[in-house]
Specification:
With 346 residues, the protein is of the alpha/beta class. It folds into two domains: 253 residues, Alpha-Beta Barrel (TIM Barrel); 42 residues, no CATH class. 32% of the residues lie in helices and 27% in strands. It has ten helices and 18 strands. The strands form four sheets. Strands 1-3-6-7-8-9-10-18 form an eight-stranded parallel beta barrel. Helix 3 packs across helix 4. The protein is globular and about 60 Å long. 30% of the residues are buried.
Length: 346
């Protein structure tokens, strides 16, 4: 008799495990596109196809406060050079500087939201690009700008009825201390798991990413009040330090060129280079004695970070969005790297 009871228990457990497995939803993996011109090359398009991605988060313009006009202005509007594949839905993203919400009143906030909606429609019509159901706003708000930024989001939703979902980027400090920073009035958020270090610190090893820092931010005691997807870094930069102070940033530096052009650069350590003589590099004028620190993230570090996110009881993202898709992305990460990322999070 006991034998049959055990068999029944085993069968029930097996059925439950199968049901759980069948109900498990595979997480979507896709990218941000942050360049001003939308013109994907073969590698970029292939990455989207490999991920079975049916959407792409595309920055369509920036908003920044201009001292001359004493008002926020629209900058860096998207130019579509080549259309995306038909199966890819565009999720428009707008980057807004925090200072855009300083020293303005609620009438100006409402006006900005109204003008933003009009500019979104203008981009969609003039660039012959169709937007999907979601729009995302990217702003690193602070306690002093929170009220105006949140009011802007509420008004924006009113002026953009065509979007069923408004999402916002959430920085790690906003995730860990929601009672201090407030919760934006949106439908969901994207947790930005990068830009963790001190940009100004010349002695820091990497200002983009650190799993040790991530572990500290993930030590929360309650879930964030909004559903959160996660955004992971797949980019690099070179910070230019002059007399120990950060003065410039070079996006996607050519590391092979740094290592081979020994008449221009002296390698000081694994990711630091000294400029040997005055001259231009990557369109920027550098001076003898300047130091470049190349910040990039090893694929294994990203895998470890995805494991931390997967195992965190308060995070259950539907999407992992990699920041960002650019024409030389495969100089940093191989197809096998992205396959491993996908396997880890799922």
């Amino acid at each position: 008799m006991w034998y049959f009871k055990i068999n029944r228990i085993v069968i029930v457990i097996t059925i439950l495990a199968l049901l759980v497995g069948c109900n498990k939803k595979e997480r979507i993996c896709t990218f941000y596109h942050w360049e001003q011109t939308l013109d994907l090359n073969t590698d970029e398009t292939q990455l989207l196809q490999d991920f079975n991605a049916n959407e792409l988060y595309v920055r369509i313009f920036d908003i920044d406060f201009k001292d001359k006009s004493k008002a926020p202005a629209f900058l860096s509007s998207l130019h579509v050079k080549n259309q995306l594949p038909e199966n890819i839905s565009v999720i428009p993203c707008i980057f807004i500087t925090n200072r855009s919400f300083k020293n303005i009143d609620f009438a100006a906030v409402d006006s900005l939201a109204h003008r933003t909606a009009a500019h979104i429609n203008y981009i969609e019509n003039t660039q012959d690009i169709a937007f999907g159901d979601e729009i995302q706003i990217d702003c690193d708000w602070t306690p002093s700008t929170r009220v105006h930024y949140f009011a802007y989001l509420k008004q924006l939703k009113k002026y953009l009825p065509q979007f069923g979902t408004i999402s916002a980027t959430i920085r790690l400090h906003q995730f860990k201390y929601p009672e201090k920073t407030g919760i934006p009035p949106v439908d969901k958020g994207s947790l930005m798991v990068y830009n963790m270090g001190d940009f100004e610190d010349s002695e820091a090893s990497n200002a983009i990413y650190s799993n040790d820092i991530l572990k500290q931010y993930l030590k929360v005691k309650a879930p964030y009040p909004l559903h959160l997807d996660v955004a992971m870094p797949t980019f690099s930069w070179a910070l230019v330090f002059r007399f120990g102070k950060a003065v410039k940033i070079i996006h996607h530096p050519d590391i092979e060129n740094l290592n081979s052009a020994k008449e221009h650069f002296t390698k000081l350590s694994q990711n630091k280079y000294k400029i040997n003589k005055n001259g231009y590099w990557k369109g920027l004028y550098l001076y003898e004695g300047d130091v470049l620190r190349v910040d990039r993230i090893d694929a294994k570090e990203i895998e470890e970070g995805l494991k931390l996110i997967r195992n965190n009881e308060y995070l259950n993202p539907d999407k992992v969005i990699y920041y960002h898709l650019f024409n030389n992305i495969k100089q940093l990460y191989t197809d096998e790297d992205f396959e491993s990322f996908n396997a880890v999070i799922n």
